[in-house]
Fold this sequence. Notes:
Blueprint: H1 7-38, H2 45-55, H3 63-87, H4 91-108, H5 112-127, H6 137-155, H7 161-188, H8 193-202, H9 205-224, H10 232-262, H11 270-288, H12 296-307, H13 312-315, H14 321-340, H15 345-350
Helix pairs in contact: 1-2, 1-6, 2-3, 2-6, 3-4, 3-5, 3-6, 4-5, 7-8, 7-9, 7-10, 7-11, 8-10, 9-10, 10-14, 11-12, 11-14, 12-14
Amino acid sequence: MRNLPKPGASIERLVSSAPAIVQIVIAVVISFSISRYLLGHPAPVTAVTVTISSLGFMRDARPLRVVETALGVTLGIALSEAIVLGFGQGVWQLALALAVTLTVARLLSPAASFAIVAGVQSVLVAVLPVQAGGPFTRTIDGVIGGTIALLCTALIPRDPRRGALRDAKRFLSAYIDVVASLAAILRVGSETETDRVLEQARRTQPLVDSWRTSLDSAIAIARISPFLRKHLPELQRQHVMQQNMDLAMRNLRVVTRRLSVLDRDGRPRPEIAELLSGVVSSVNLLSQSLNEPQLEPLVRQNLILIAVRLHPSRLLPGQPLAETSVVFAMRPLVMDLLMASGLSAEEARASMPDISV
Length: 357
């Protein structure tokens, strides 16, 4: 009973998968109809399976991945059909078909999944009865299935913006949690809690990886889809945000490691805590700007107010180098956040006080 899925999670998964289900069903019907009624193939199983395999429920729905999957499946079918046509069916023919398919697939693609997909289809062709309709009927069906899958990716897209936006908000929420936890600890001082926050920051890597994957997929689909191309500038802005927030998380880990060393004395550091509280507010606004782009100027304004304070001798006058090193570590973090909000590297750098003065 403990491992049963929560109803809410199941419903959310179903709702998010609904566009993919519609897309797959339509693509399968089209592939089947072309092979069965237009070309007269009596049992176009391959057209159907290639379509489903190429589309799937993968988070990464880039056209390139669809093409790679379709090519892998079709390659396995074609090579196996050629061997069956030349040597018939049997145990050694099965071994030969699989060996040739895996060898060719590994030569053509570095992706292990490409070879496995090709190998599975090769085995099926080698062991199943020869299909009526003439030589290479299954190969033709495979080409049809892959082509329809690619066309449906462009013409019946799953609106991948939704997945990218969801992943963006999850990551930004995790970022806010890490910074807020760090700020709370610095207000009161702690000898051990900073290490816990550092571990919390390290656990965010899968979230930024998911955001990157879904966003790359969304951009690739928008480039070929006439219905989503108008959203390409919006997705490219989010791409800039994603790249810089990835760097901002890496720099947040650097800041947290510095603080984990300093906090062994258990002394509060309210000046740094106040800066981090400003970062929390700014990133919260940055997350809202994904839906409301008009908030971006306010995000930049808040971050610039933080940036101008990042001078060691002004923020922490009279403190030793060990203390002021945290300020030096925060400068690239705030620069990353400024660039995530839309500033160029030169503009973000110009917002920082000159530490040589």
